[in-house]
Design brief:
single chain, mainly beta, five-stranded antiparallel sheet
């Protein structure tokens, strides 16, 4: 199941960053290799979907990150407009 969050930090020289879940919880680390769109550099506050995965003896990490266009509120507003 996909989760959603916003990029908290990303260091392009290290190829690693962190993401904060929209629904609260732990800040999860991720690596450049976990990004689904090759060549894309994540920016702070961009919305991404991801899957949490346990690595390194139980620590959680974010994998399969995919950039989401817009933010959750804009998507909700668009959906309600379409429904009338």
């Amino acid at each position: 199941m996909a989760h959603f969050g916003k990029i908290k930090s990303y260091d392009s020289s290290m190829g690693a960053g962190s993401i904060t879940a929209e629904k609260g919880g732990d800040v999860l680390r991720f690596k450049k290799a976990d990004l689904q769109q090759e060549g894309q550099v994540p920016k702070v506050d961009q919305r991404y979907s991801y899957e949490p995965k346990e690595v390194d003896g139980g620590k959680k990490s974010a994998v399969n990150l995919q950039h989401q266009q817009g933010d959750g509120q804009n998507q909700k507003n668009q959906a309600s407009k379409q429904q009338g």
